[in-house]
Structures are given as structure tokens and as C-alpha cells.
From TrEMBL:
ATP binds at residues 108-114. Residues 308-421 form the Mur ligase C-terminal domain. Signal peptide: none annotated. Pathway: Cell wall biogenesis; peptidoglycan biosynthesis. This is UDP-N-acetylmuramoylalanine--D-glutamate ligase. It catalyses: UDP-N-acetyl-alpha-D-muramoyl-L-alanine + D-glutamate + ATP = UDP-N-acetyl-alpha-D-muramoyl-L-alanyl-D-glutamate + ADP + phosphate + H(+). Belongs to the MurCDEF family. Cell wall formation. Catalyzes the addition of glutamate to the nucleotide precursor UDP-N-acetylmuramoyl-L-alanine (UMA). Keywords: ATP-binding, Cell cycle, Cell division, Cell shape, Cell wall biogenesis/degradation, Cytoplasm, Ligase, Nucleotide-binding, Peptidoglycan synthesis. It is an enzyme of class 6 (ligase). Its main location: cytoplasm. InterPro entries: Mur-like_cat_sf, Mur_ligase_C, Mur_ligase_C_dom_sf, Mur_ligase_cen, MurD. Residues 106-286 form the Mur ligase central domain.
Amino acid sequence: MRLVVLGGGESGVGTAILGKKKGYDVFVSDFGKIKENYKEVLTINGIAWEDEKHTEELILNADVVMKSPGIPEKAPIVKKLIEKGISVISEIEFAIQFTDATTVGITGSNGKTTTTLLTYHLLKQGGLNVGLAGNIGKSFAWQVAENKHDIYVLELSSFQLDGIINYKPHIAILTNISPDHLDRYNYDYSLYINSKFRITKNQTEADYLIYDNEDDAIQNWLNKNTIKANKVPFSLTGKPEKDGGFIENNNINSTIKNEIFTMPINELALEGKHNIKNAMAATAVAQLLNIRKQTIRESLTNFQGVEHRLEKVLKIQGVQYINDSKATNVNSVFYALDSMSTPTVWIVGGVDKGNDYDELMPLVREKVKAIVCLGVDNTKIINAFNNVVDVMVETTSMSEAVQLAQRLAEKGDSVLLSPACASFDLFENYEDRGKQFKQAIYNL
């Protein structure tokens, strides 16, 4: 069997290693440049590869193709593979056939990284033999090739879910749905929503779907479609009929199979309403996998949080600098601004993914004293907020953005990097953007 892997990044190289181990004839092809460390791994493992091109005669003879999540369906080589009827799948779909581990699959427009890391933390503290993979950490396929975990916690993007045929998580979490990546879905929100719900399409009556019961897109979809999995909703305002998470007397509560877990909200390590929801989702997983209540409590209290997600960097002259570089869409920024309790200088901008800034207007009016635009093209942001804030400046480098923000901020204010956009105009990725932000603060 010939396995062709498109994309020589973490998921591509991991898939190649697993494929080789399982006896496939493997070829890796990347239209961009493969990083030196990955080239070395491929060469050491005797796996043929190419970069900066796609040689069709070496690709179109595949029995199966693993396409990295970053490559769109519209890419010419992918179109040709589909026309030829060659199976194009995701890393998760390829790897799952070689493990009998239980998986917890986590998706959503926002909060999935925090929820994934928090869930992993709860299970690991509970003594389970658990791996962390998907959109985060070491490739799932690579771990299946080299480790034997009993459980994997997988962060799954819509792109990874698009490449699923048979994969089903035993426990799925859908944190929320808001417009994102619409450029990949023909600017049709319903296609993106359907993509997210692929996480439950193969689930059975023995499986569980944990979801935000206050999310309009999730509610509407569930009202129109049937699922086989057991529903475990969570909510800040209502109480579930059966299993699920809710708030009562300033306590977070989670009922699973008549077992109630409860703890005071003010003991949670993470702040903000959205993080109460993330904690409810992770708690439900821990309960379903029989982690002791005391362990869950301790783990929710000592969890460290996620880099580049509302990360408090430094306080300088009474001004708090907050790195929320991971906020690449409007909904993420909504959570960020909602959690701000001081006047805020907001650094925003990048590659717009079809953003509609209307839902941010009330929060911007209430909380934002100045906007620093950081992008190659800031027109849309300027048009949206020009009449809403008094001060608006444009920059094209992180150091300049941070220096300007420092001048605009007074004691007691916050400077928030929460871009609402992708980072590819000025940075390698959101991590690079966040690291440059932190470095610029240390340089002040």
C-alpha cells in the first residue's frame, strides 16, 4: 500500500513514521519548505520526501493520502486526487486504526486549547496513562507509533474533522461555535457548523457529547438533527434535566450518572465566564472516566493556564500587559474584552478572516480607551471603530505597537493584545506574534 503524506510538518511527519512502521510505502510531499529537523527525521527513518513542489507522478499513484490540516480542499493537487477517487484523510483518521486507546475529542471555535489542556491535566493528575495530541503537542500518529497510551485527549480543528470517515471519540466536547475560517468554507457559516458536528457523526449510544447549552449555533443544529451519543450539556444560567454542568450558589456543579461534583467558582485557577464553561466540560470528562472528586478539585485549583491565551505577562508602572495572541477571531476577542475590568488599550489586527466586528461594539464602547492597529491592512478595523474610540493609531511592527500602547496607557489600565485576526501578514503564526509581544514588553 502506498501512503502519500501532503505536508511535512508535525502531523505529516508523524503520519509518515506510523505508516512506515505499519509497512506502507511512504512518500512525503510539501509545497512549502520542510523544516531541517523534520527532514532529518524523515531521512533517518528512510522515508522519501520532497519540498517546494508536488511531483504529480509520485502522488497520484497513492492508495491513500493524508492531507495536513493547513492544506485547503481547493489546492490543485487535492482536487486531482479527489477526481481520481483516491481517499484523502486526516492524520486522526489514519492513526486511529492502529490504536485501541479511548479518545476524548475536543473542538470548538474558542476555548478548545484551554479545555484540552485542562482535561489532560485532570486525567493525568488522576493517574491515567494519557497522551495529548491533535492540534497541540506531539503528533497523534507519532505517539501511536512510539507510545502506548490508554487514553488520548485530542484537540481537533474543523480542518481535521473534515478528513474523518470512521473516527469517533468516546467522549466529544464542543465548546462553542462562532464564525471562523469562513474563507475555507465558501463563506457559508452552515458548512463550518456542519464541519464541527462531524465530531459526533460516528458516535453511538455508548458515547458522550458534552456541549455548551447556551450556544445558539449548537442549539439550532441539535434541534434540527439527531445524534446517537448521550448529551451532556453545560450552562451558566440553566440546570440540565439529567447529566451536565450548571452554576448554583456561586458553585460550579457537574452531575454525571447521579454523581454530583461541586466546588466554589472562586477556587478555579482560571478566571472569566468562558473558563467556568471550560472547567465544566473538563470536569464532565473526568467524572465519566472515574477520576476522584478530590483530584478533580485539586486539579482545577492548580491548573497553570495556556500561553498566548489571556496570559498576564508583566505589570509595568501600574499597567497590566496581557497576551491573548491566540484570539484569532471576533468571538475570542469578545471573551477577552468581557473579562477586562480596567480601561484597556487594545492591540488588534492581522489577516482578516471575514470578520464582522458588530458584536464587539458594546464592549469596545464600555472598555476600550484606545486602539493600536497592527497589520499590513487595517482599513476594516479603522472603518468599524473609528467613531467608537477617541484614539486610534496604526503600526506595522510589534515593538512599535507595544511602545505606542505604553504611551497611551495610564496607571490602572491594561494593554491587551487580542488580534481577532490571523497572524500571517507580519508573523510566522500566533505563537510567534505572542512571543514578540512578550519580548517587546520585556524591552520597555
